[in-house]
Amino acid sequence: MNEELLTKLKSLFQIEFANTDFLKEAFTHSSYVNEHRELNLKDNERIEFLGDAVLELTVTKYLFNEYPNLPEGKLTRLRAAIVCEASLSQFAKEYGFDRYILLGKGEERMNGRKRPSLLCDLFESFIGALYLDQGLDGVINFLNQTVFPRIKSGAFSHVMDHKTNLQEFLQRNGEVSIDYVLIEEVGPAHEKEFLVEVLAEGNILGQGKGKSKKAAEQIAAANALENLREANEIEEIQA
Amino acid sequence: MNEELLTKLKSLFQIEFANTDFLKEAFTHSSYVNEHRELNLKDNERIEFLGDAVLELTVTKYLFNEYPNLPEGKLTRLRAAIVCEASLSQFAKEYGFDRYILLGKGEERMNGRKRPSLLCDLFESFIGALYLDQGLDGVINFLNQTVFPRIKSGAFSHVMDHKTNLQEFLQRNGEVSIDYVLIEEVGPAHEKEFLVEVLAEGNILGQGKGKSKKAAEQIAAANALENLREANEIEEIQA
């Protein structure tokens, strides 16, 4: 097993494998196995099959808990933005996983080490290996240090529609009037900024600033949701 | 909560919910929620989103462990045959879940209670509820009594290619010559039966009978795999 990878996993994530065979399998591409039949190695395809399902459940559970008011259609869209080739290959690169995968010579020449589909599979294989070695808790521990904080910070929220979320939250028990009011328009025509306020039944819930009215409304809605959530938490503490 | 459903779950599967709210949510269709807004109910869509991912992982893990020699492509095909609308809706009907879902009047009139997509969602919702109440162990306990025995008995094996599986098993450490030999052809032309033997490096591994040479070869391969597995188990016991 590559010692550098082991050291990296320990220093970055405090992860130590009890059985490094799983890790070896995760970092072995089929092209390498095909070129070294005499070594009788396992490629990472089966462990990726497992890791994919583990990642799907752990992310699903996180979103289910974190967004108790988000309807199923939106949860599905948000999950698709997280568990996709573009973002998983990005994670694999960011954590330097690409440096350690064993590739066949042909695959190496074809720049396989940089191919998003290969890196995405590698990330899922790693999750599979971690699951086999340390169970779901081990995977969740890793995701708590990597993927989940990104979700929380809004890295995938371009697929979220905050105005609809706010509306659904406010109208969960019936009709509520919601208004977006333009408060201010500042700057020259080509660099305008808009300040918008959102009100429910006439009460101000939040403000948002943006380069267009639409963007400012989205931000106002996101801020309103944040304020409402904080208020709810205070109510719960006082109750 | 419907008492009949609770009794049924207990008598059929020895399942008792600590929190029946999850079960209530799983058995509430959106059409019912829409017709009874005053009751402020939750429909089963979010819990189905969760249950879908739980089922995917539990079935994946089962297949991964049960078929250690099956390559990823075949595991994927087998899983797709299990976790699909046709089979999950069948399970929902078989266990009588269809009788207990709350539907709106329109949905009821449109025969929603028999619609495979609705029944498939219901099965996944039930898995989601069971997971929230009893964790993965609770779900696996249920699947051990329902879905997993079906997999084991070969209910989904029409998607498996036993000849390829046998070849992969025998050639996992290098080339091995495999031959299928027609031993016998009996019966009249329109009702012929074929008896085929499969040999590896000249040693007989198994026999198969079928309505075509191809079918007989598949069965011979399946029997050979079964024989090899048994022989392996004996070796392991003796070792």
From TrEMBL, chains A, B:
It is an enzyme of class 3 (hydrolase). GO terms for biological process: mRNA processing; regulation of gene expression; rRNA processing; tRNA processing. Its main location: cytoplasm. It comes from the Bacteria. Its EC number is 3.1.26.3. Its cofactor is Mg(2+). InterPro entries: dsRBD_dom, RNase_III, RNase_III_dom, RNase_III_sf. It is found in: Cytoplasm. One of its GO terms (cellular component) is cytoplasm. This is Ribonuclease 3. It comes from Desemzia incerta. The gene is rnc.
